[in-house]
Design goal:
Layout: E1 11-15, E2 21-25, H1 42-60, E3 65-66, E4 69-70, E5 72-75, E6 80-83, E7 86-88, H2 93-114, H3 117-121, H4 124-140, H5 143-151, H6 156-181, H7 187-195, H8 201-221, H9 223-229, H10 232-239, E8 246-249, H11 251-254, H12 266-269, H13 279-282, H14 303-315, E9 322-325, H15 327-332, H16 336-341, H17 346-367, E10 372-378, E11 385-387, E12 391-402, E13 408-415, E14 421-422, E15 427-430, E16 435-445, E17 452-462, E18 467-477
Length: 479
């Protein structure tokens, strides 16, 4: 049993009237379990480095404090998002839109240049699959030991190993779900609630939902997620071209493949450098044979490169039979210099320019962002009224949101019509990261303006920072 065997479809003969037979084809394609072989090498070390970096960030960030609060917290209940010193409100949705646009453009750019290396090194599915495979190797042994264990009948040893693996998988998965929810609920409070069994229903649901999703995807579905559920594999052809960096097998050098001793001369045997050891297939997490060319299942993890380089070293052959290259470079025999020159092609330059412009715009917008927001709403219960002194009065509701983490004092003034004055207090104090409403009345001498609607402007000044916001509204003069 190995992962070089092709999946099969069942063909079932059935009898029909008249004694004839027809064949019933099953539309389900049976899949054999893949047992990836462990491998060592440069790209494996890079892959594990990315595992450590991404998981240190993911598991550690919720525990990092900024002042008197969690450094990164998306407080949905209070409708405030804290990202270190930045406080965002739902009204700042435009920044999320900009971030999503930047992420999409970065994906297009990186894919056009380097292929699916995001999938091979940093995608959560790949990262957690690597961790789960490591835990599986820790409890059940290497590839050959796992094959023997699964083929053997149930025993105390097999049950203990399987149970230990499942316990470690579930523990890591639930900790992952707990950490995920910790980005939306203060993680220290969540930890106390978890220990005391006092978590709310939604928190409980998402801890177990995300935990079980991690358990199922990384423990059981593995390559099926990449091959059938992830859309990236399907539309990568729209982002690839013949100058995109991919994992390639040098067919001209490797074929015809065949086994031989280490001392044999391949030219005398009329064989290529490939010794047909199938190690490149055995280490592949998606179970493909890279020697068949570019396939959508390939996630560019380069495990086959490390395996093949190890074999080339043992045979005293040059490395690079399987390597990162491009279709044009392999076909035309380019060296590294030609390969690098083709990186700066029009498609890549266009992606880079658009990504740079959008990123610069987002950064500039955040840098120039006023740390408070104001909404002005007219009082619809009373459009205009006559008050003592023969003045016309309009009523407004001002909602001031303090996006800083300090107490702020605001002064409110209005202008736009001669003689326009506030008929109420014009000072407001707002607590850190809070929102507060204030009813403001504006008064105008009876003959101060012609009947109708007149534009006016509210000016709100933060006394602590001397920053100002001007909001437009209208003043109604009755006929």
């Amino acid at each position: 049993m190995n992962n070089t065997e092709a999946p099969t479809r069942k063909i079932i003969p059935i009898a029909v009237a008249g004694g004839a037979e027809q064949e019933l084809f099953s539309l389900y394609q049976a899949q054999k379990k893949i047992y990836p072989r462990s491998v060592a090498g440069l790209f494996t070390r890079w892959r594990w480095a990315m595992v450590f970096i991404t998981q240190i960030v993911f598991y550690g960030l919720p525990w990092l404090e900024w002042g008197q609060r969690q450094a990164v917290l998306f407080d949905l209940g209070a409708r405030r998002f804290y990202i270190f010193g930045l406080v965002l409100y739902p009204q700042d949705f435009i920044y999320l839109s900009g971030l999503l646009v930047i992420s999409a453009l970065a994906l297009f750019l990186f894919t056009a240049v380097a292929g699916r290396q995001w999938c091979g090194y940093a995608c959560p599915q790949t990262v957690y699959t690597e961790i789960f495979l490591w835990l599986e190797k820790l409890t059940e042994g290497d590839r050959s030991a796992r094959l023997r264990l699964d083929a053997s009948p149930m025993s105390a040893n097999k049950l203990a190993r399987k149970a230990s693996k499942q316990f470690l998988w579930l523990s890591l998965a639930l900790w992952t779900g707990f950490t995920f929810v910790g980005y939306f609920t203060p993680i220290k409070e969540l930890g106390i609630s978890f220990i005391s069994a006092g978590m709310g229903p939604w928190e409980t649901f998402w801890v177990f939902f995300y935990g079980l999703a991690t358990y199922g995807n990384a423990g059981f579905m593995r390559e099926q997620v990449c091959k059938y559920m992830c859309p990236y594999a399907r539309f990568q052809s729209a982002m690839f071209d013949k100058d995109t960096l991919i994992v390639t097998y040098d067919e001209a050098r490797g074929e015809p493949r065949g086994g031989r001793s280490k001392k044999a001369d391949p030219k005398a045997l009329n064989v290529g450098s490939c010794v047909d050891c199938t190690l490149c297939v055995q280490v592949c997490p998606t179970g493909i044979d890279i020697r068949k060319g570019l396939q959508y299942e390939c996630i560019s993890c380069a495990a086959c490169i490390d395996a093949c380089d190890t074999v080339m070293d043992k045979m005293n052959y040059p490395r690079g039979l399987i390597r990162y290259s491009t279709q044009n470079a392999v076909a035309q025999g380019w060296g590294r210099a030609e390969l690098l020159r083709r990186v700066m092609r029009p498609r890549v330059l266009m992606y880079t320019a658009v990504l740079g412009i959008v990123t610069a715009g987002l950064v500039a917008s955040l840098a120039l962002r006023t740390p408070f927001k104001v909404d002005v709403i007219r009082d619809r219960a009373s459009l205009a009224r006559i008050v003592s002194g023969g003045k016309i009065e309009n009523v407004y509701r001002l909602q001031v949101m303090n996006a800083t983490e300090n107490v702020q004092n605001y002064r409110i003034t209005a202008n736009g019509l001669p003689g326009l004055a506030l008929g109420s207090q014009g000072m407001l104090t707002v607590a850190p990261t809070e929102s507060r409403g204030l009813t403001v009345t504006l008064q105008l001498p009876y003959e101060g303006a012609a009947p109708g609607s007149h534009p006016i402007y509210f000016e709100i000044e933060a006394l602590n920072t001397a920053e100002r916001i001007t909001e437009k509204s209208v003043f109604l003069v009755p006929r």
